[in-house]
Amino acid sequence: xxxxxxxxxxxxxxxxxxxxxxxxxxxxxxxxxxxxxxxxxxxxxxxxxxxxxxxxxxxxxxxxxxxxxxxxxxxxxxxxxxxxxxxxxxxxxxxxxxxxxxxxxxxxxxxxxxxxxxxxxxxxxxxxxxxxxxxxxxxxxxxxxxxxxxxxxxxxxxxxxxxxxxxxxxxxxxxxxxxxxxxxxxxxxxxxxxxxxxxxxxxxxxxxxxxxxxxxxxxxxxxxxxxxxxxxxxxxxxxx
Amino acid sequence: xxxxxxxxxxxxxxxxxxxxxxxxxxxxxxxxxxxxxxxxxxxxxxxxxxxxxxxxxxxxxxxxxxxxxxxxxxxxxxxxxxxxxxxxxxxxxxxxxxxxxxxxxxxxxxxxxxxxxxxxxxxxxxxxxxxxxxxxxxxxxxxxxxxxxxxxxxxxxxxxxxxxxxxxxxxxxxxxxxxxxxxxxxxxxxxxxxxxxxxxxxxxxxxxxxxxxxxxxxxxxxxxxxxxxxxxxxxxxxxxxxxxxxxxxxxxxxxxxxxxxxxxxxxxxxxxxxxxxxxxxxxxxxxxxxxxxxxxxxxxxxxxxxxxxxxxxxxxxxxxxxxxxxxxxxxxxxxxxxxxxxxxxxxxxxxxxxxxxxxxxxxxxxxxxxxxxxxxxxxxxxxxxxxxxxxxxxxxxxxxxxxxxxxxxxxxxxxxxxxxxxxxxxxxxxxxxxxxxxxxxxxxxxxxxxxxxxx
Amino acid sequence: xxxxxxxxxxxxxxxxxxxxxxxxxxxxxxxxxxxxxxxxxxxxxxxxxxxxxxxxxxxxxxxxxxxxxxxxxxxxxxxxxxxxxxxxxxxxxxxxxxxxxxxxxxxxxxxxxxxxxxxxxxxxxxxxxxxxxxxxxxxxxxxxxxxxxxxxxxxxxxxxxxxxxxxxxxxxxxxxxxxxxxxxxxxxxxxxxxxxxxxxxxxxxxxxxxxxxxxxxxxxxxxxxxxxxxxxxxxxxxxxxxxxxxxxxxxxxxxxxxxxxxxxxxxxxxxxxxxxxxxxxxxxxxxxxxxxxxxxxxxxxxxxxxxxxxxxxxxxxxxxxxxxxxxxxxxxxxxxxxxxxxxxxxxxxxxxxxxxxxxxxxxxxxxxxxxxxxxxxxxxxxxxxxxxxxxxxxxxxxxxxxxxxxxxxxxxxxxxxxxxxxxxxxxxxxxxxxxxxxxxxxxxxxxxxxxxxxxxxxxxxxxxxxxxxxxxxxxxxxxxxxxxxxxxxxxxxxxxxxxxxxxxxxxxxxxxxxxxxxxxxxxxxxxxxxxxxxxxxxxxxxxxxxxxxxxxxxxxxxxxxxxxxxxxxxxxxxxxxxxxxxxxxxxxxxxxxxxxxxxxxxxxxxxxxxxxxxxxxxxxxxxxxxxxxxxxxxxxxxxxxxxxxxxxxxxxxxxxxxxxxxxxxxxxxxxxxxxxxxxxxxxxxxxxxxxxxxxxxxxxxxxxxxxxxxxx
Lengths: 240, 455, 712
Ligand SMILES: Nc1nc2c(c(=O)[nH]1)N[C@H]1C(S)=C(S)[C@@H](COP(=O)(O)OP(=O)(O)OC[C@H]3O[C@@H](n4cnc5c(=O)[nH]c(N)nc54)[C@H](O)[C@@H]3O)O[C@H]1N2
Ligand code: SF4
Ligand code: SF4
Ligand code: SF4
Ligand code: SF4
Ligand code: SF4
Known about the structure:
- The structure holds three protein chains of three kinds.
- Chain A has seven helices and ten strands.
- By secondary structure, chain A is α+β, with helices and mostly antiparallel strands.
- Chain A has one domain: Alpha-Beta Plaits (2-Layer Sandwich).
- In chain A, the strands form four sheets. In chain A, strands 8-1-10-9 form a four-stranded mixed sheet. In chain A, strands 2-3 form a two-stranded antiparallel sheet.
- By secondary structure, chain B is mainly α.
- Chain B has a single domain, classed as Formate dehydrogenase/DMSO reductase domain (Formate dehydrogenase/DMSO reductase fold), CATH 1.20.1630.10.
- In chain B, strand 1 and strand 2 form a beta hairpin.
- Chain C is built from 24 helices and 27 strands.
- Chain C has a seven-stranded mixed sheet with strand order 5-4-16-15-14-6-7, with helices on both faces. Chain C has a six-stranded mixed sheet with strand order 21-23-22-27-20-24. Chain C has a four-stranded parallel sheet with strand order 11-10-9-12.
- Classes of the chains: A alpha+beta, B mainly alpha, C alpha/beta.
- At the A-C interface, helix 2, helix 3, strand 2, strand 3 and helix 5 of A face helix 1, strand 3, helix 2, helix 3 and helix 7 of C.
- Bound molecules: ligand MGD and iron/sulfur cluster (5 copies).
């Protein structure tokens, strides 16, 4: 561990998503697109599986009419501690940060798409074409992060620009990062408060406490990828 | 080496026959070369379009991020196991019937692996950043990631290209000298350089034999490792249907299978094209057919073992992949099993089939159709049905991928056609050596040929 | 590794930068983001927003955490409002057409407003009612100005209620004596019964309700509120419910009546509330006596056990809240259903507590036009009595039932003016097209449809310097009024707005008027922290009448399916269809992108030989459209559902020619006794037709049934 890493060991970013709160509304999907310069691709490319959204709401059906249920689960990069997308990347474009993030270096990526195959969550999206923002839509592009070019892999970063901003603000004010300082765009907009982001290395953080819930589970846990996203099971009548 | 008079033909005659392909190009040759060149050009155009517009012009998508380029890659690497490996094994085991086919097979390896090596490059989203794979000191202080099977791949493929090229070249040295002696002017200069001053002295032959044996011994593990590593591109992942310990030997067998089938196809074509019936006899076909039969049995066994464990284990996601393969790609599945097992095994049990040119041509081509299909079925369905069912999908190649695939076949053909024109396609010295070891004895009214074993 | 730096290199240490020699006049500081408070105008909910502005460009819209409507949260539409501002097809300047549907030629503001004013003046001197003003239901300054213009040119003003709030306003007036939307305090409830109210997606104030829903579910350590949804189709809201009751369309009121009867019979009501609201239990019971559990079960087509359970639970849990939504409200008996939902709240004691009807008078409360008014206006258009019409922020060609005959009537109007930000059916037909600034470039006073107690007014303000120079619609109206009346002293929009802010209930904490204005700018509105408490003087019209049975257009033999139309969670009634983020965002229930579709029960689909993605002709007694089929496991077999929002023919590049507009299928059924629209009362039949294109879903149709593979 180098100096920078030991400085940072105080942070391990994680997320708790409460499926009992999530209403499947999709606001997080659009918020993420707005925050992270994620392009739309249009009807044709959507039909070919080339959407670029970094978070999606999966809707599963269970049972048959009339005893049918729909379940929503927001799916984004799980920032696996043991991320299978990382070792397979031949150029270290997919790498692990000392704060528990799965980082993606766009400039380094050569576009083998190996990481995407090895991500069991299908969380990674690929720039099959150069993204387009017809003028003046490009005015909306955030200067906090790049626009990715064709041939490059991308995915949820846990809004790394917000993490950095939160840490820098705290540093300027000479104080440690507070729990509420860093809120990713998806969590910020989520009306029922289904998404809670926080520092899992801090036992006082809300995310840490929620993650201890009896309802906790992680997706595809048996694969051993150690996701940093913890889900809380959705309800259902308790007297059923 | 001494030449015996028992040889059926004079040395000169034999040389002339074996080097007939290097005569002035015929019209047919020119037409063929031009046609193949046109297909390659079309493929290059398709690739150019992909470079300019992005990989979206191919059929890949989420979840099927790998498609025809990787299928081609695996297929062509498999084909490359034909030559060098076959030739090395035959050399090491002193199978004397090998001699006329060695050169063709070895050249085939070099060309197939060259074609194969193009595919990872075409496959990249940013082909122009290929140098990021190369370990060189740079301002970023970054090395490539040696943990990635893709990096192993790059290294294995490079090793194999270098190794098999050397193998081919080494074997050609004496023949290049023969060609040199027959040429005039500029051509003579070029072949002189290529022949590296070969004179055919006893010492040279001794060193040559040692080197050949050594190369043959070395190239086998390389060949095995290459296809093992290719298999690990898949097996090292978490993808259900890929993550399997059997993959390395299964891939190697598959590679040998498609390689040998390709050699058979090639021999039959060469035999016809250059009137080499004299040297490539039904006996050779018979031998190759037996090898093919064994490998087909092995491949079928591996496939059975793989399917059996999936079925018996019935792990939900693996089974979902399997049933999906049956539902969506049932025809391809059938095609593969028919091509690789159902036709091949029963047919090759018959000596008459093995000795029949048309039958062998049909079987060998069918095996490679089956093997191409097998590669498709390995790459696509597991990706299409990965762990998260909401993101399941399908894949079909676009005209760009099909064009580039066609260009790969044409490119291979073109390289071969050029090679046969400029290089000795039959291993002359090896054949002479074989002839030398063969003596004809009269037994009553029949002449029986016997072989003396090499020392 | 320095890779993190590649991803983000934003620092906010402005102290090191060289200060601007000549500061830019938009107040932006290079390298430093600024936040402006404003109000989302994408729907009538009026959520508070903060817009992140960087070097003069709006970059991101975020919820205003201090705003009492949405508490810092936003829906997908609110997020996407940026794309309206920067939409590539925005109308940038006034246009005029010499002939209908002819080419649009650029025109100056002066000449455009001159032409409008002189035409209006000339027509109004001839006779009253020559001019039609057509807008959504308006409030505040906009209403004031339209009233002024209507008086000045003796015009008729139609306030087209595309989202159908009129039923709710009428029901509230009938039951508790005030025409206002109800604010449901879900967070405190233990039991919530939604009668087709899609509170989490489109109903009235979805962000407010969804935020409260989250707290209802999981903010209380020992209580998890229960949520039951009754309706013929599982909406996104219904998908979140603990139990979905797939009842027959239009029988939601029957269920409510049954529950009410059960509560009275079993003395499960709140006696204090009954007394406080003056409910005569005896006569109420008499009115509802027919609706015993068995009969309700039969009428609604629900199992008796489930009717019984929901009735018992509604009596058992406290607080228990009931609400009726737009689906049931769109039947011929819609008013009954909404009224009965209020009755349930009175019985449970939630009325005035968790179900708060705002009784304060707000400046210019909305008065949507009745069906008769709309029909009359359309008839007059058709008969050539309307000689000029001004349309603002509406698209009746898309949102009105085609059977009302609006399209034909419009062709008879010789002079059409359309005011809009983006091109649509109306702007493409208008003789004069006036652009409006996007919602992020203009001032507006906003009165959220559901107002928390203590809320005064919401303020929308420009957050960037306008992309294209143009006056606000208010200033355009003022200009027209000035020119029509010849009175140059009409005060400007901004000064009116300041007056309005100054006139809001005085907040004890503020002294100076100006300070209030700045506070409104800073907060994006004015509200008081203090909760106003419960409502004054509860009175109600007792008893609430029994539900009538719904009527439908078309016979069951000829048209076997009831057409269930719903407002798209992403595109609403089409007003958000121009925004690519929303077109590409998968519909929550079907995950369809960039298209519209018809939902068919799997059993029905099997009978008709339909599979996912097949195309059908949906035929009603009045028209037919072709749509791809989504085999939808959570819809009644006798119902087919189509989302509104698509089917625009002439608009911007993203919505044009996409999907089909189901409003063409709707027969104009009404509730004639109450003069209310009933646009959910049409029957249809399906006919398989050859495919006309592909249906895109973000989720794999077969994988969508395999949630068990990821442990769901
Ligand atoms: N390819 C290429 N590159 C070059 C050169 C070249 O010839 N070719 N020339 C080089 C030379 S000689 C130079 S001087 C540099 C110039 O490079 P820069 O110094 O980057 O010059 P400008 O592009 O003019 O950018 C000046 C910025 O300052 C802002 N600005 C304007 N007025 C003020 C003010 O009062 N205060 C502040 N804080 N900002 C203000 C403007 O909006 C603008 O964004 O470029 C160098 N780079
Ligand atoms: S914004 Fe929240 S409630 Fe809506 S889909 Fe996302 S996580 Fe679920
Ligand atoms: S979810 Fe996928 S992309 Fe994200 S860290 Fe895990 S394996 Fe990598
Ligand atoms: S696509 Fe990019 S990030 Fe992914 S493995 Fe290849 S080079 Fe690495
Ligand atoms: S954390 Fe940020 S990047 Fe990741 S899904 Fe949420 S908004 Fe997108
Ligand atoms: S509910 Fe309406 S006002 Fe609120 S954010 Fe969504 S669109 Fe805007």
